[in-house]
Amino acid sequence: MTDDQGTEKFSLVSLSSKFSLVEENKAGITTQILLDAFKELAKIFDVLGVAPLKFVKDDLHSKIGIIQNLVEKENTESNTTHYQKVQQMMQHEVDEKNVENRGSGTWNLVRLRRTLDFITKLLEEVKVPETTLANAAYKAYESSLAPRHPWGVRKLVGMAVYALPYKKDF
Question: Could you tell me if 59 and 100 are in contact, meaning their C-beta atoms sit under 8 angstroms apart?
Fold first, then answer.
């Protein structure tokens, strides 16, 4: 499904399909399949409205892009397979003592996982009938991302969520 500009729209069916492909087996989780699932997840912010949660959407795209670049660089510049599977990527970066580098796949994967936690909690909160979308977003943020953000960012997010559309419009 696409919008007027030809951009693919968010689809819960597509999201479920992409994440169902992310399964761990003896060979490990394929990094590209996981990235494709996160790309689909990022589309949910188009439904919520870009402005209020733009920081989450931008961060999600940034982290996906960093890992995507590592995968693509390896595919074009070397014969190694350090980034083909998530477990291989993590082990390679542990061995290279590169895990805590902001440009590492592992560091960015942890942040993607935290964003997934935020979105999961947001959707759980939205299900509560008497909760507004703004309150649902703030509660989800407080229980997932806020503990890792400085005071100023937390206050900005607290204000930004009130620009979200009404739940009936969601």
Answer: no
The Cα 48–Cα 125 span in angstroms is: 14
CA 37: distance to chain centroid? 9
Summarised one tens digit per residue, pLDDT across range 1-40 is: 555 555 678 888 988 888 888 876 667 899 999 999 999 9
| Residue where the block lists tokens 């960012």 | 153
Q: pLDDT by residue (tens digit) across 68-90?
A: 999 998 888 777 789 999 999 99
CB 112: neighbour CB atoms within 10 A?
22
The pTM assigned to this predicted structure is 0.83
Helices 151-160, 133-144: crossing angle, 10 deg rounding: 160
Alpha-carbon distances, residue 127 vs 36, 74, 81, 145 (angstroms): 26, 42, 42, 20
CB 63 within 8 Å of CB 122: no
Residue 48 to residue 76: CA distance in whole angstroms = 37
CA distances from 70 to 42, 74, 89, 92, 94 (A): 20, 6, 10, 12, 15
